[in-house]
Amino acid sequence: MVQFNLPANSKVLKGNYFKSTTGSKNIKKINIYRWDPSKNENPKIDTFEVDLESCGNKVLDILNKIKNEIDSTLTYRRSCAHGVCGSCAMNVDGINTLSCMKSHKEINGDINIYPLPHLKVIKDLVADLSTLYRQYESIQPWLKAHEQKSKTTEINQSKENRKKLDGLYECIMCACCSTSCPSYWWNGEKYLGPAVLLQAYRWIIDSRDEERKERLKIISDKLKLFGCHTIMNCTNSCPKGLNPAKAISSLKKMLATN
């Protein structure tokens, strides 16, 4: 069996245990990854006993309860709490998801919460998405039409062409798909990843856009697109039920036939 030797300061240690004092019989143990860059300490797993009798149904409700009532230093991203912004993406029970959409009632036993995998951790559950955002910017995710035309004429779109965007425009760039992809783990600096490639395809097939050839050229580099090995983790992990793998396959076909 292969043996991996991790640097001593990267090993995750057992952290603090916060026992419930409520006396409730409906207690859930929540194990949360903690790491503070301001402290010269290893990452650790803190365990919190949470009374579910006074907590909402979602994992984000548990995190809010812990932060508000038990440990105010717990750090995570959250905003809309309605599955629209993508801020609260994290790994819950071994699956990348939005904590505001994931019901803790679906999880048997302890709940394990980690930041999105294979990214640098800024603090606790906050992962560094700066590389993903730079890649998103590189595909120029905005409508490109002749300047004069776009200023003076409404750009109409048929119902048929508008329907082609279904399953694409709903992406909220939460990064659950990209951070579940082994190809993105291995070549994250070069392979664009499923989230960005889904967005690239969204603009390439938009009938109002007039830069299809240029857009295809941008992603035609071998590693930018063809780093995909159709593992399908991206589609399986998308909390919005989208299919990035299908979009990537369509892009490969376009490049092969154009």
Written account of the structure:
- This protein is of the alpha/beta class.
- It folds into 2 domains: 8-127, Beta-grasp domain (Ubiquitin-like (UB roll)); 130-257, Alpha-helical ferredoxin (Fumarate Reductase Iron-sulfur Protein, Chain B, domain 2, Orthogonal Bundle), CATH 1.10.1060.
- 31% of the residues lie in helices and 15% in strands.
- The protein has 10 helices and 8 strands.
- The protein has helices at 59-69, 130-138, 147-152, 159-163, 182-187, 193-204, 212-219, 222-226, 233-237, 244-257; strands spanning 13-18, 27-34, 44-51, 89-92, 95-98, 111-114, 121-123, 126-127.
- The strands form 2 sheets. A 6-stranded mixed beta sheet has the order 1-3-2-6-4-5, covered by helices on one side.
- A hairpin with a 2-residue loop joins strand 4 and strand 5 (95-98).
- The longest helix has 14 residues, at 244-257.
- It is elongated, with a radius of gyration of 21 Å.
- The mean pLDDT is 94.
What global shape is seen?
A: elongated
**Terminus-to-terminus distance:** 46 Å
Helix percentage range? 25-40%
Contiguous low-pLDDT stretches (5 residues minimum) are none
Please name the CATH architecture of the largest domain.
Orthogonal Bundle
Whole-number total of structural domains: 2
Strand-pairing-aware structural class:
alpha/beta
CATH superfamily descriptor of the largest domain = Alpha-helical ferredoxin
CATH topology of the largest domain: Fumarate Reductase Iron-sulfur Protein, Chain B, domain 2
Amount of beta strand? 15-25%
Broad CATH class of the largest domain: Mainly Alpha
Output the strand order for the largest sheet.
1-3-2-6-4-5
Radius of gyration: 21 Å
On the 0 to 100 scale, the average pLDDT is 94
Q: Provide a count of the helices.
A: 10
Element-level helix/strand string = EEEHEEEEEHHHHHHHHH
